[in-house]
Amino acid sequence: MKHATRPGSGPGWLGLAASALALLSCYGTLAAVALLSALGIALDPDEGIWAAAIALFTLLTIGAVALGYRRHHNVGPTILAVLGAGPILWTLFARYAVIVELTGFTALTAAAIWGWWLGRALS
C-alpha cells in the first residue's frame, strides 16, 4: 500500500497553492482593477496592503516548498524558490521592473511545480 505523504511532510500541493495565491494576489488584483475601471467603477487598492499580501504568499511558497525537503530530500526546489522570491520582493519594495517581477514569479512557480513533482514521484 502506497502512502500519500510521509508523517510530518504536509500536503505536496501546498507550495503550488501558495504560489498560485501569490500570482493571483498580484496579477488577479491588477486584472480586477483594470476590468472594473473599464466598467466605470473606480477601485484604488491600498498598495501597501497589496504588496504585503503578495510578499506573504511568496514567503509562504518558500516555506511550503522547503517543507517538501523532508519528503524528497532535494534542496533544489527550495533554492529556486528563494532565488525567485528575491526579485519579487525587490520589485515590491525597492524598484519595480516588470521583467524582474515576471522572472521571479516564473522561478517561484517552477520551484513549486518541481517540489510537487518530486513528491509525487515518491508516491
Give a short summary of the structure.
This protein has 123 residues and is mainly α.
Comma- or semicolon-separated keywords:
123 residues, 0% strand
Please describe the topology of this protein:
Layout: H1 14-38, H2 47-67, H3 69-72, H4 76-93, H5 98-121
Helix pairs in contact: 1-2, 1-5, 2-4, 2-5, 4-5
Kindly report how far apart the N and C termini lie: 10 Å
Number of domains: 1
What letter string, H or E per element, gives the SSE order?
HHHHH
User: Which percent band covers the strand fraction?
Assistant: under 5%
Coarse morphology: elongated
Radius of gyration: 16 Å
What is the number of helices?
A: 5
Outline the low-pLDDT stretches.
none
Number of strands: 0
Structural class by secondary-structure content:
mainly alpha
Main beta sheet, described?
Answer: none
